[in-house]
Amino acid sequence: TVPALLRAVHDDDADVRATALRSLVRAEAVDASEDVPSLLEDPSAEVRAAALDALAALRADWSRARALLDDEDPLVRARAASILLERGGADRAARATFAELSASDDPAVRAAAYRALPCSSADGWFDDALRGLEDPAPAVRTEAARALALLDPVRAAGPLLAVLARGSEEVLEPLGEILTRPDGETHARVRGVVEETIRAALRSRRL
Length: 207
Hints:
mainly alpha
């Protein structure tokens, strides 16, 4: 129940606090808690990340996420950047955080960076996501492919097919989502891109 979850966000166990926050988000009851701002400063990185999810669900005072762009945990920084970029893609500090994290030596951090990309094709995000398709780590390529599919499914179809042709199966799921979208106009345009890509491949094979 919601009252039990509200009590659980004060539990001594960090896993319990994080789970309670995520459960409140799923139950669309996070606005019943007044503790989200204070939990953004929780000693546990997992709880801080869950508090950011709760902050995003509240749709209020997202600027509180800005302080966590300097968090010691890179995954928390990525989630904070995600919120700020989603609400205003031109946020310079969040952009700088994305650039830093996407160049990390840790594949998990790079993947989190691409997962943070906003669902807007403005401000060159498509080109940023496109670079992720060349990452050596499969998990990073997967997140970059998902970002491309969300940013611009029509433009994404060609690059995703090209990566698939090279044997990178990580793009299969995002590509499948593009091809099965219910939007008739988008589906028709994507199908046109797919057909032209196949024709171009056949032409090059004949040369």
